[in-house]
Amino acid sequence: MNYEFTIIVPVYNESDNLLRVETELLAYSKVALKKTKILFVNDGSLDNSQDLIETICKRNEIFTCISFNKNYGLSAAIKAGFDNIDTKYIGYIDSDLQTSPNDFNLLIAHINDYDLVTGIRNQRKDNLLKNWSSKLANNFRRLFTKDGIDDTGCPLKVIKTEYAKNIPMFKGMHRFLPAMVLLQNGNIKQVPVQHFERTSGTSKFGFWNRSIGPFTDCFVFLWIKKRYINYHISKKVND
């Protein structure tokens, strides 16, 4: 089908949201700037998310899925998505739909000139504690990574696949995607996007894994940055 763009949708106990995910992503696929398909990554859900995902995939050829045998976490789900994609561009959106798939077009408009384009939620609809802990984590991470990104946790990103597949992965990696592209001498851009209140399901992140956890992950990033191998082949002979 000559797809150009695959959207990764990590899922963990999101059965209340999945039919809405189907509706909104189908609608987006009809107006997408690049021919789009969707990859669900079921991260060991304990509800009936898998049954719903399989139903969605059976009735829509643009939907596919992979499923874990247990819960490994968001970074593992994104990593699995990167490993199983064959299109030129990768998108990422959370299944809670607090961001709009339609805003992918705002990011894709810049992807020819940048290697990663990420959303920035200028008017967040989260509660005070969530906003405060996210702001604290962003300040810590920006201090360590110097990536210049104001909202690395925004779950709306477009990445060139060649860069995504070269990102070294670790737990908590999903917060460092822009910094990981910079490690590869790539360039990045952030674009304002819409943000909405969660209408169904429950957040999988609390104070610890939204603030303290990211702080400790910064030291992992510094270790990787110091030892990261980056090279470009200038010529091949008799290949």
Description:
With 239 residues, the chain is of the alpha/beta class. The protein has helices at residues 18-29, 49-59, 74-83, 104-108, 128-145, 161-164, 177-183, 207-227, and strands at 5-11, 36-42, 63-67, 89-93, 116-121, 156-160, 188-193. It has a single domain, classed as Spore Coat Polysaccharide Biosynthesis Protein SpsA, Chain A (Alpha-Beta Complex). It is built from eight helices and seven strands; from the N terminus they run βαβαβαβαβαβααβα. Strands 3-2-1-4-6-5-7 form a seven-stranded mixed β-sheet, sandwiched between helices. β1 (5-11), α1 (18-29) and β2 form a beta-alpha-beta unit. α5 (128-145) packs parallel to α8 (207-227).
Assign a percent range to the helix content. 25-40%
Strand order of the largest sheet: 3-2-1-4-6-5-7
- At the fold tier of CATH, the topology name is Spore Coat Polysaccharide Biosynthesis Protein SpsA, Chain A
User: Spans with pLDDT under 50 lasting ≥5 residues?
Assistant: none
Report, as a whole number of angstroms, the end-to-end distance: 30 Å
Mean of residue pLDDT values: 85
| Overall number of strands | 7
Which structural category fits the helices and strands? alpha/beta
Query: What's the helix count?
Result: 8
Dominant shape: globular
Radius of gyration, CA atoms, in whole angstroms: 17 Å
Key traits:
17% strand, seven-stranded mixed sheet, alpha/beta, Spore Coat Polysaccharide Biosynthesis Protein SpsA, Chain A, single chain, 239 residues
Short account of what is shown:
With 239 residues, the protein is of the alpha/beta class.
